[in-house]
Here is the input.
Amino acid sequence: MFKVVIIDDEQSAREVLSLQLARCCKQLELIGVADGVETGVTLITEKQPDVVLLDIHLSDGTGFDLLRKLDQIRFKLIFVTAYDHYALKAIKFSALDYLLKPIDPDEFDRAMKKALSTLESENQNLKLNAFFNNFKYISQEARKIVLHTASSIYLINVGDIVRCQADNNQTMFYLSNGDQLLAPKTLKEFDDLLSGFQFMRVHKSHLININYIERFDKLNKFLLVLKDKSIVPISVRRKDELLEKINKL
Here is the structure.
């Protein structure tokens, strides 16, 4: 049996999460609830839970304030929040788990099953370090992304990503130092995540960092040469958009 605590400033939200937990997961036991930073720190310190469902906005601060008061994160963390574009972007970059309010039962079930399957293997401290960095800095150069591979978890500067290429339902990352990392997510997921950070989907199988463009091959108008000397095809419908971006660099 794994121990769970809920930290949320809304009583109705605590009740919903408690009911969902009782409904879906026999391996998870609710051992306490709290409504704020101080009460939450006390609860976690005393109970040593395996999973924490943590609201971002609490009665006396934020969930981030609570996390900063803990020396080590020895539990699986799942943020629970109403939609907050800036916070969610930082959470996604850091590969942390979250649930949006109002709670969808199917999403709750998926989050709990994932928590159970990764309790022993995930490095929450690495992910939280990335999150705090991402929440503080909005620029591409300072942003960091957490990438899972089959054997490791990597913390990568977004500005060091040259390009990404689809590999069936996985994505190969090509970095400026020559490293290659295969992440078990689709290119579309990373396209959604990196959009707005100088990345562009130039082909159904290729996502590039436009800062690494070396030249647009005029002899073959559908090929792009990057600074690492890789050659990337361009789809016909993306050519004009790409040229517009190049002209703005």
